[in-house]
Design goal:
Number of helices: 18
Strand content: 5-15%
Mean pLDDT: 77
CATH class of the largest domain: Mainly Alpha
Low-confidence stretches: 246-277, 426-482
Distance between the termini: 10 Å
Number of domains: 3
CATH architecture of the largest domain: Alpha Horseshoe
Amino acid sequence: MNQQAFEAGRDAYRQGDLVTAVRWLEQAKMPGEVSGRVDHLLGNCLMKLGNYDQAAIAYGDALADPSYGHKGALASNRGRALLAANKPQEAVASLVMATKDTEYPTPYKAYIALGNAYTQINDYREAGVAYRNAAIDESNPDPSGALRSLGGCFMKMGRAVDAVEAYRTALDFSTPLESQNAIYEDLGIAYAAANRWSEAIDSFGHATEDGTHTLTAEGEAALASAKAALSANLGNTGSTDAFLAAAGYATGADPLDPLGKSGEFIPSPEDTGFFDISEQEMAQIEIDSRSVRRKHKHSGCRRFLVFLLFLLIVGGGLAYGYYSGYGWPLQEKVAEDIFRTNAEGGDISKYLADGLSSDKALDITAVLPDGATDVRVEGVDRSMRESSALVTVTLSAGGEQSYNVALVRDGIGWKGSDVTVEYPALDGDQAALDAAAGQTAEATEEQAATEEAPAEETPAEEAPAEESSEGEDGTSTTTGSM
């Protein structure tokens, strides 16, 4: 891989110059070479440029590099590219591959795209299965969207009652900051389809009560049907009467005494021997009962106080450890695992923070050294929510290099958010530093003289290959291959 071309393409991508990034990344590989890092970033550029067919090809080329990993993310990206290119059948195969990768940290993304692909080919049953899997995925930060899509699949299959439950669950998972109006409209349509007119009208009322949502044509038609049906049924038995009749009140019998023999279920006093007890025996029974109750009461209080004290001690210790920056796994363990897993060619995404973008994850992977050994954590700066670890590794080519690993809190543990190369300050003879600076200045002057001198024939092994292209204004430009 041409490392310089790759870095130039990555820098252009970060700056938003996607066209230049594509040009550099296409030069980063030799003919026939396989590089997941290059093709993954190239696919991202092409997706943002709207070149979905070529993006799918780039992601497919990245999947051909087994040492790169990220199989789930690449297959998911390829499936979404094919879906955007209006190739849902091909997208299904790629997205199913993504859902089978057990190391893929966000499978809900693949499931949602898979549901969209099945919807495009009118396979609403499989689409519903995919949306359900997306909704129950613990990594999904917004299950309400998948549940709403699941309700739509139920409606397409004529299962309005199931759609109602899906939409109601979507409302439970939606946050107060989100607009629930669209979900309420879908719920009203489902209620109307299930002949539950009152609930339908109530749902449409919720959808429009703040004045920011306008019902669709389908919603307007469902609301009109619900009002007409409810008006036609005003002379019939109300819903409350129907509920009471179903419970047994309409028959004239007490549902608590369905046999109509009130008192027969209460035991007779004569059968208990209650009236055969003397006053003295009754007083002794009362004394014994008080003693037993007092003993049990005190014993229960002691047990409760001991248990409460234990909880306070344990909770205080855990709170102090959390506030001091401790957790499980510790920062040292996460930092070591990032470097060791990368050196072994594994997928480090499980050690990275969930909120990181794919681009940031690529940046971290690019910084990590290949084949590093003897990973040592030199120190950790701990705090409650953010920490940093200084890691020193032995490089495969010899020598040591230090890295600073930034970590963020993930539940009770930690995950990496950034990795940067640490260049320690040099302490030593100032004269040696001045000499080094003089050598750098001389090298710069020599380089300038070389650039000003007439072009000379360079040996084939040292001369960079050049490509000529004609710009939009008709001028000819020559670009050196990085």
